[in-house]
Amino acid sequence: MLLACKGKVIVSGMGKSGHIGNKIAATLASTGTSAFFMHPAEALHGDLGVIESKDLLLAISYSGESDELSAIIPITQRRKVKVIAIVGNADSTLAKLADCVLSIKIDKEACPLNLAPTTSTTATLVLGDALAVALLSLRNFKPEDFALSHPGGSLGRKLLTTVRDIMHQGERLPLVSPTAKLKEVVVEISKKGLGLVAVVDAEQTLLGVVTDGDLRRVLDGEQDVRLLNATEFMTPNPKVINCNNLAVDAVEMMHNYKIGGLLAVDDANKVVGAFNLHDLFKAKLI
Question: What's the half-sphere exposure (Cβ side, CA atoms, 13 Å) at 181?
């Protein structure tokens, strides 16, 4: 019934069952099932207006005798809304009104007085999570789908942020020609502040990269650095990443190769961006 529902899954319950229901609705919503929580008392005073015939009501009451839930179910049924009841008493009023009954019957509450809802609320929560996970699997819900509903969290950032989102481009992109002299290379690296510069041809196709480390090595040499072109002290065939890749792929690459910056290229191997560890820190990816 939940998988076949073409509308919204509306979760409802009073008291502690309502608190658990709120969490169940949130879990369903974040894992691919359109769901929200509706308080039974508010439903009786206007909120029932949001319910449509294609929706499904998930009603929670351990006793199965919640007056508020029992009052709204006949109204929802007139709209041909299917009802699933989560109860501890299969012979209760709520169970008899429902189209489907899920039992969470327990022997006793963890409360030493056997009064406060403890074991019963835990059982309800477990059942709700089990339903959400089963639906997640049946819908073939993927991490990318999860990220779309969690863009503000760390998981969302990791699964949604691409290299293009964090890279420096346009006027902020450090580039020099193959014939650039050392001074020009140093100025470009200093000006753009990424610790590297891409050596490109007229079509902006990547030829190599010059890093701070390359500059130190050439200055330690004995040749006249004033006469050298960028192609003579650049690193050819540097590590690059496609601009459409996830930024977390860049984190892994930089960690594996122990490098502090990367160039981003498009599918034609043209340099379109550059970034360093600071950009990844700023994006809260590391």
Answer: 5
User: pLDDT tens digits for 225-258?
Assistant: 888 999 999 999 999 999 999 999 999 999 999 9
Which sequence spans correspond to the domains of the chain?
A: 9-141, 163-282
Same topology, domains 9-141 and 163-282? Answer is no
Percent of the chain with pLDDT over 70: 99
Report the 10 Å Cβ neighbour count for 49.
7
**What CATH number belongs to 163-282?**
3.10.580.10
Cβ atoms of 166 and 275 closer than 8 Å: yes
Strands of the chain (E only): list them: 9-13, 35-37, 56-61, 82-87, 100-103, 175-176, 196-200, 206-211, 235-236, 240-242, 261-265, 271-276
Question: pLDDT-based confidence at 144, cuts 50/70/90?
Answer: confident
Please tell me the distance from the alpha carbon of residue 127 to that of residue 58, in angstroms, as a whole number.
Answer: 12
Q: What is the pLDDT of residue 185?
A: 96
Dmax over CA atoms of the chain, in Å, equals 94
Q: Which secondary-structure segment (H or E) carries 136?
A: helix 119-138
Is CATH 3.40.50.920 correct for 9-141?
no
Long-range contacts of 90-99 (CB under 8 A, 24+ apart): 90/64, 91/64, 92/61, 92/63, 92/64, 92/65, 93/64, 93/65, 94/59, 94/61, 94/64, 94/65, 94/66, 94/69, 94/70, 95/64, 97/70, 97/73, 98/59, 98/73, 99/1
pLDDT of residue 198 exceeding 80, the answer is: yes
What is the residue-wise DSSP string for 150-206?
-TTSHHHHHHH-BHHHH-B-GGGS-EE-TT-BHHHHHHHHHHHTSSEEEEE-TT-BE
